[in-house]
Design brief:
The structure is a single chain. The chain folds into 2 domains: 122 residues, Rossmann fold (3-Layer(aba) Sandwich); 98 residues, Winged helix-like DNA-binding domain superfamily/Winged helix DNA-binding domain (Arc Repressor Mutant, subunit A, Orthogonal Bundle). Helix content is 42%, strand content 21%. Helix 1 crosses helix 5, helix 2 runs parallel beside helix 3 and helix 6 packs across helix 7. The protein is elongated and about 55 Å long.
């Protein structure tokens, strides 16, 4: 990992002009940037020296952005921002489901992208600070441990993405407290102004599939109609 003062960012983008502008802006903002023009090259760089952050285009030659996101998530919970075209909405949702942290729609301003990177990093730092209360929590047959990042439901371990874990941990730390979508976007994704609120719905649905005995009749992650979600201990 790079030092705090120059976080290393890997930009995976096959359009040279976009890659150049993005890395220029990142460097101006104090990050160190490296460019890969396709997924294979990105994998090689990642295996040699994992970056602190990845920005990737969904439409890449050879290994596409979704496959690359999945590959990265299997190895790391490095923050990932996807660059997507307007028409790629289904892919964007698939990318978020695979554990990408955020997306930016093309055409975008490089400045906006930099501020999104900062928001995701700030959130990561805040999560770590909040982990000061990093106690394990359990409520009959469901337990979560932030140190090992292990979740168990009904005695078996459950595989969660980084975002699913953070969201569940937040809700379990505040049982019965109702969180609005915007509050969840703010606390788990680091900012509500850019991120599609549908992201929250997708994550709640996936969490239910993983921790509820019957996802269609949730007993743990409850929807409070017109308001948001809460954890029922």
């Amino acid at each position: 990992m790079g030092s705090m003062n120059a976080r290393s960012i890997l930009v995976v983008e096959d359009e040279a002009s976009i890659a150049e502008v993005v890395s220029l802006y990142l460097k101006r903002a104090g990050f160190s940037a490296q460019v890969a023009s396709d997924g294979k090259q990105a994998m090689g760089i990642f295996e040699r020296q994992p970056p602190d952050f990845v920005i990737l285009d969904l439409m890449l030659p050879e290994v596409d952005g979704l496959a690359l996101t999945r590959w990265l998530r299997d190895r790391s919970d490095v923050p990932i921002i996807m660059l997507t075209a307007r028409r790629e909405e289904a892919d964007r949702i698939a990318g978020l489901e695979m554990g990408a942290d955020d997306y930016v729609v093309k055409p975008f301003s490089p400045q906006e992208l930099v501020s999104r990177v900062r928001a995701v990093m700030r959130r990561g730092a805040r999560e770590q600070a909040e982990e000061g209360s990093d106690r394990a929590i359990s409520f009959n047959a469901l337990s979560i441990d932030p140190r090992s990042r292990v979740v168990k439901a009904h005695d078996s371990e459950v595989e969660l993405t980084a975002k699913e874990f953070d969201m569940l941990y937040l809700l379990m730390r505040h049982p019965k407290q109702v969180f609005t979508r915007d509050q969840l976007l703010e606390r788990v994704w680091g900012g509500a102004q850019y991120i599609d609120p549908g992201t929250v719905t997708v994550h709640v649905r996936r969490l239910r599939e993983k921790i509820e005995l019957d996802a269609s009749k949730p007993a743990r992650l409850l929807t409070v109609w017109g308001v948001g979600y809460k954890f029922e201990p």
